[in-house]
Amino acid sequence: MKADIHPDYHTIDVKMTDGTVFQTKTTWGKEGDQMALDIDPLAHPAWTGGNAKLMDTGGRVSKFKNKYAGLGF
Questions:
Q1: What is the 3-state secondary structure (H, E, C) of the chain?
Q2: How far apart are CA 5 and CA 1, in angstroms?
Q3: Half-sphere CA count of 53, side-chain side, radius 13 A
Q4: Mean pLDDT over the full length of the chain
Q5: Cα angle at 41 between 25 and 37, to 5 degrees?
Q6: If exposure means fewest CB atoms within 10 Å of the residue's CB, which of 20, 47, 50, 71 is most exposed?
């Protein structure tokens, strides 16, 4: 393996939508940083089977709905 070409692999905290925190190893951020998730397996309708509404970050969901409103979905 070549030296000095790979990103730093370290431990961070991941905060779930319900407030629980777990540690994982990643190349994201710096050692000890915390990543807060907006959508995770506890809240996403694909895993929960519900009709939960997704958070519209940046208006992307609204743009999609407006663009394809006339297709009869």
A1: CCCCCCCCCEEEEEECCCCCEEEEEECCCCCCCEEECCCCCCCCHHHHCCCCCCCCCCCHHHHHHHHCHHHCC
A2: 9
A3: 5
A4: 83
A5: 55
A6: 71
Specify the pLDDT at position 36: 93
Query: pLDDT > 90: what percent of the chain?
Result: 36
The encoded tokens of residue 73 equal: 């979905």
Across 12-16, 24-28, 37-41, least confident range: 37-41
36 Cβ contact partners less than 8 Å away, ≥ 6 residues apart = 15
pTM: predicted TM-score of the whole model, two decimal places: 0.56
**Residue 20's closest CA among 4, 1, 43, 47?**
43
- What is residue 60's predicted lDDT score, i.e. its pLDDT? 78
